[in-house]
Amino acid sequence: MEATTFVLFGATGDLAKRKIYPALYNLFIDQKLPASFSVIGLGRRELSNEVFQKNVEQSLRSFSRRAVDDPGSVKAFLEAFRYSVLDVGHKEDYQKLLQLVEQREAELNIPQNRLFYLSVGPEFFDIIATSIKESGLGSTKGWKRLIIEKPFGHDLQSARELNQKLSISFAEHEIFRIDHYLGKPMVQKLEVLQQANPVLQALWTNHYIANVQITAIETVGVEERAGYYDHVGAIRDMFQNHMLQLLMMLSIHLPKGSTSEEVRLKKKRIMEALEPLQKEDVAMNVVRGQYTAGTIQGKAVVGYKDEPGIGQDSMNDTFIAARLEIDDVFWREVPFYIRTGKRTQEKSTRIVIEFKEPLKQHSSTYEEKTNPNLLIFEINPNEGITLQLNTKDPQHEGEFKPILIDFHTSRKDVPEAYENLIYDALRGDPTFFAHWDEVELSWKWVQPILNAFEENLVPLHPYSAGSFGPDEADQLLARDGYHWCTNS
Ligand code: NAD
């Protein structure tokens, strides 16, 4: 891997502390960082290099997956870190930064490969990218890359505007848009599982699959993010990006050895084949909900409107369920159901594939007695794969019982999403980042829903905290003769 300077905007922020430093450290321990590696942290506060390094060390001790017990390794890791003050609007700060970057490149005798990571609010993405270009930081003799956090736009138009601005300073192949769901190991395995298992490959069509259910629900509420979340809701915070990315990753068909370009092209095709919703159809296919007071794991919690910072008149969605269809040869007539929400009974990100039950149609023996075959990909908090089959119940003559073939990995052995993504960005592999085409098509698909919400064409259904969302989300499937497959 080529020597790199990692320039981190937002180095004093929450994301850097909880995710980015621990990810870098774990990569370092696993020997997955370049041999010569320099990190320059940026923030508004004045900090000495020593204090910055201490803060980074503290974050490792609090959040690292790997043990932080070898003083030699910790010291060697922290030696790569320098700090510079930068306010995004101050041009002279970028000149100071350029000097520091060049000084470190000279000290370490490394090429001008620069990775700029924007771990700051989205309102700063544009000005930072522009200033990187104008200051000369972007005029490298090596490569330059931009890692950008979510959210990428607030709707279709703002996303297009942002992309247009970024593209003045960085080419598409230099922009790595993080969708951390794409960094989750099980999501990254979906393609390999298909490619390496002819049995799965053969089943991956509408001949055998009845429906696909994609769930990402959590027990937590809005927490300290009221100001942000109340303007965004589940539709923008989760659905437009993470949920549609999961749908793309599950539904693409790829031959073995496919390149990142092929992955992206196939994902784009899926988005283009997604049946568009007209504003008037949204109410039939999308359920929006907002949590009310309830009990989660024995603890009473307040409703969304009573959360600090949320008004009694808020119409924000804390839950979304939707029915989607992909109009291509593999998936035509297979409904995809997506749901995501806060303050639900359990925390779970999973994809369930429910297979058709042709025997039921042809034999009375199986009528009503078997359960559907299910293939379940657990993504979070546990990682695993489960296959549900039917077998004879030896205790009850003539009856069937479902058995589960189960594989789960221990969390400790599984790299964090940010480890995978930073590693890929360092190597210049864009496979698990969101290409602009995908982002644009996702916003395009979601835009009629945003419009319908705005015009109040879709009811906002209350649901009790601790439930699985509003009953209407169940009816979405019941209409087609299905139900959500849950853990509980
Ligand atoms: P944060 O508020 O904790 O940190 C923001 C950082 O930006 C700080 O280091 C601050 O010094 C810096 N900053 C603010 N104003 C600045 C200015 N004028 N000039 C220079 N620096 C300035 O935010 P965060 O939680 O670390 O999130 C950072 C980004 O990551 C955001 O885009 C957020 O949406 C995204 N994100 C965060 C999380 C998370 O779990 N925290 C998850 C996904 C995406």
From TrEMBL:
Catalytic activity: D-glucose 6-phosphate + NADP(+) = 6-phospho-D-glucono-1,5-lactone + NADPH + H(+)
Gene Ontology cellular component list: cytosol
Active site location: 242
EC numbers: 1.1.1.49
Domain Glucose-6-phosphate dehydrogenase NAD-binding: 7-188
Amino-acid positions noted as binding NADP(+) in the UniProt annotation, renumbered to this chain: 10-17, 44, 87-88, 150
Domain Glucose-6-phosphate dehydrogenase C-terminal: 192-484
Pathway: Carbohydrate degradation; pentose phosphate pathway; D-ribulose 5-phosphate from D-glucose 6-phosphate (oxidative stage): step 1/3
Alphabetized SUPFAM superfamilies for the sequence: Glyceraldehyde-3-phosphate dehydrogenase-like, C-terminal domain, NAD(P)-binding Rossmann-fold domains
Catalytic class of the enzyme: oxidoreductase
Keywords noted in UniProt: Carbohydrate metabolism, Glucose metabolism, NADP, Oxidoreductase
GO biological process, one term: glucose metabolic process
Binding site for substrate: 180, 184, 218, 237, 342, 347
A GO molecular-function descriptor: glucose-6-phosphate dehydrogenase activity
Pfam families: G6PD_C (PF02781), G6PD_N (PF00479)
Family as reported in the entry's similarity comment: Belongs to the glucose-6-phosphate dehydrogenase family.
Reported function: Catalyzes the oxidation of glucose 6-phosphate to 6-phosphogluconolactone.
Database matches in HAMAP family: G6PD
Name this polypeptide is given: Glucose-6-phosphate 1-dehydrogenase
Naturally occurring in which organism (per UniProt): Paenibacillus psychroresistens
Lineage of the organism: Bacteria, Bacillati, Bacillota, Bacilli, Bacillales
Gene designation: zwf
